[in-house]
Design goal:
single chain; about 50 residues; 1 helix
Length: about 50
Amino acid sequence: MGAPVLIEVPENVSNPIDIALLEFEADAIPITVVRKLPGEGAENIKFPF
């Protein structure tokens, strides 16, 4: 889908799903979940914890 690769990819890996899994396991993918709180507040939870 055009996203840049965030890690060094071994030569034997070419499947985008495998590359994404390697990036996730290397903590290279920035993931933030926004949890809405009662009222108007929100909490940002960054992964990995």
